Amino acid sequence: MAVFCLMPSSLANSSSLKLFATPTKKLAQKDDKLPCELKLLKSLAPPLMTALIALSPIVNPPVSIGQTIDVQKGAALFNRACIGCHYAGGNIIQPGATLFLKDLQRNGVDAEDEIYRITYYGKGRMPGFGQNCTPRGQCTFGPRLQEDEIQLLAEFVKSQADKGWPKIENNGD
C-alpha cells in the first residue's frame, strides 16, 4: 500500500513541492530513512512554532472577569475618594500634578509603589488617606482607606495612566 504525502522541496532536493508515493514503512526497519509523513512533520515544526509564538498575544483570552471586577472596584473607589480633585485623571488643585503618565513620570511617581506611597502619606497639597498617615496635618480629615484599598487605587491609577485615562463605566458601586 502506498502513502501519499506532500514534502517540502528542501527535503526532496528539488525546487518545488512534490507529491511522493512511498510505501509505508515501520520505524523498526533497518532502513533509517524516516517515512514521508515524519519528514513532513519534522520540516513543519519550526515554522509552526514560530507562528504560534508570534500569534500568542492575539490568541490569549480576553481580560478575566476578576480583572474586570478589580477595575470596577478601582473605579468605584476612585470615584468615592479621588474624583473631587482628579476628575478624568486631571488635577483641579495643582495642574502640573495630574495623573496622566507624562506628569507622573516628570514628578517621579509613575510606578505603582510610588502612587501607593503618595496616596497613603500624601505629598504637597494632596492629603494622605492611609490609616497610619503622619504627620496629621498632611492627612485627610475625611475617612481613611485600608491598605488593600490604597493598593487597588494605585493599580487603577497606573493602569488608567498607561491607557491615557479612558472612560470606565461604573455601576455606582
Report what the structure shows.
The protein is mainly alpha-helical and 173 residues long. It is 47% helix and 9% strand. The chain has helices spanning 9-12, 36-59, 65-81, 83-86, 101-106, 112-121, 147-163; strands at residues 2-7, 18-23, 122-123, 126-127. A hairpin with a 2-residue loop joins strand 3 (122-123) and strand 4. The longest helix has 24 residues, at 36-59. It is elongated and about 80 Å long. The N and C termini lie far apart (70 Å).
Tags for this model:
173 residues, mainly alpha, two-stranded antiparallel ribbon, 47% helix, elongated
User: Helical region count?
Assistant: 7
In angstroms, what separates the terminal alpha carbons? 70 Å
Mean pLDDT: 77
**How would you sum up the global shape?**
elongated
Report the major sheet.
Answer: 2 strands, antiparallel
The whole-angstrom Rg is 30 Å
Strand order of the largest sheet: 1-2
Strand-residue proportion: 5-15%
Determine the structural class based on helices, strands and strand pairing: mainly alpha
Instruction: Give the helices and strands as they follow along the chain.
Output: EHEHHHHHEEH
In which range does the helix fraction lie? 40-55%
- List low-confidence stretches: 14-25, 27-31, 58-62
By DSSP, the count of extended strands is 4
